[in-house]
Amino acid sequence: MKRLGMPVKQFAPIVLSGLGNAGLNTQAQDSTLGPEFLTVADNVVFDYQGRIASRKGIQQISKTVASPVKSLGAFIKEDRTREYYAASGDAIYKLDTTTTPNSLTAQSFSGTPQTISDSNWQFINFNNEFWGVQSGHKVINYDGTNWYDIDDLGAYSAPHGVTTFDPSCALGNFGRIWYGGITEAPGVIYYSDNLIGQKLQGSAAGVVDLKTVWGSDEIVGLAALMNRLIIFGKENIIIYKGADDPETMELEEVIRGTGLAGRDNIAYVGTDLVFLSYEGLLAFKRTTDTDGKAPLQDLTLTVRNDLSRLLSTSSVDNIKLTYYQEEGLLLLFVPDEDKAFCFDLTIKGGSGLPRITTWSFLSAPLCGLGTIDGKLYMGSSDSVAEYANYYDVSISNSTSTYGNQSVCEAAGNTWDGAICWSYTYSSYAYTFQTSWLDLNSPSIAKIVKSGIFTIIGGRGATSEIFVYKDFDIGTPYTKTFTLSTTATPYLYGKLASLFGVAKYASSVGPKEYKIALGRTGKTIRLKMITEVNGNYSSLVNTMLLTKQGKIR
Asked: Residue 247, class by beta-carbon neighbours within 10 Å (0-12 exposed, 13-18 middle, 19+ buried)?
């Protein structure tokens, strides 16, 4: 009699569709999360197809200055062109993009300038002029030709009863400048005459004392939304409607128990307003209701505890919120922790929230500025940087090594102003980690023989896979592999071509990497760390080849 052998168990491919596409979730118990959430997402962004990819590089573009660049601003001129300014130490610098590297040209003040002790300015545009406010300092003004302190301007008149007019925040809107947070009266709003930001006396100028509205709170920041003046305190928010006429504007709402965590943490995103509170990142959701009320929505439900811990240990005056419209990213820089939270607003993730990731740095940017032409500038410890390409780049003066132009340029450096500027290119890595995955069969052990990871780009970079099992966060199984160096050829662009030299470099198309994993468990966690060394890469698809193990 012929005996039959045991049936051979076939490999079962499990496709992890949409892996991580809802972003970071550190709030929920990771064993309860689906594969759409990540428990680590560092230096990660999502590409236009919603796939996990690396952030771009932080590339120094300017020559160095002596002190950290804490604030950046764009001056919108009368002809609608823009000039960019950076504040560092006791000086204001103009970013000169005509030189390579860009120069930071110190600005001089006319009149009798004050002594500037810090560079934490808030810059605003008003009536074709550029204004700056900073706690403990006089207001500064640039008319397109000269810089002045406010008391050196013609038509300046200080508000009644104020010895030193030193507002910490300002808003240019509704035809006037609104000032708040002065040392002598931190709970009082001062507003200027029509189109005269320095005239704070007269029939068209005035004050709004908030003591009878919110008690002893103090003004932290100001914003405008839908003909409403929004006044942020530390513990309250006040909304006035009809703000185009201060004489008749009406108190609409007082939101108690929620305030602004730092002046520079307000951002306009489309028609909505987003701000950082001590509870998380909140948004006024614009409505079309006749009462005009703007309900608040918490955008940070999936990372709320992490963010709250950072706010409790970091100075909120150093935290800066920046909207980068080109890629739909809202960036919260936390330089005390050398990191940033990145909120992807292009496609909402789970529960209707933005997809959240974190970025880490050896030295975190101190501020950011998104430009109308699609750039993202950042202030660093000694210069201005740009979010671009896929290397972190620093610039240094190497004239002592390369003493003349020919030697300097032969070494691949830049000669400018009798100085040789050299570039240091640093790779970085992006990391993602999944939740605990039961692969739709929580009671059955899975023998994970291999994984097929489809990755686009990343020429020559190293990637490392970590596999954990059954909630054991001890020593994982690891496997390292190198991404393909084979490039997609140019379709045109050879020197003899009618079209000339190609503008874009060749790239690596999607490639499958079959990696032996060899782990058995009811639940599996994957982690991947991928080097970024000058080339973009993203994870297109993930598939695990498994066999059924014991039912237990």
From this structure: exposed
pLDDT band at 224; cut points 50, 70, 90: very high
Which domains are seen in the chain, by residue range? Answer: 12-55+430-551 (2.60.120.260), 58-303 (2.130.10.10)
* pLDDT recorded at residue 3: 54
Of 68, 62, 61, the closest CA to residue 381 belongs to 68
Rounded (5°) CA angle 263-269-275: 30
Contacts of 80 (CB under 8 A, 6+ apart): none
Are 141 and 172 in contact by the 8 Å Cβ rule? The answer is no
The angle at the Cα of 47, spanning 344 to 269, to the nearest 5 degrees, equals 30
Whether the model clears a pTM of 0.85, i.e. scores above it, the answer is yes
Mean confidence (pLDDT) of the chain:
90
Compute the distance between CA of residue 528 and CA of residue 99 in angstroms, rounded to an integer. 40
- What does the block give as tokens for 20? 């991580």
The DSSP code sequence of 504-542 is: S--B---EEEEEEEEEEESSEEEEEEEEESSS-EEEEEE
- Condensed to tens digits (0 to 9), the pLDDT of residues 296-342 reads 889 999 999 999 999 999 999 999 999 999 999 999 999 999 999 99
Euclidean distance between CA atoms 271 and 244, whole angstroms: 18
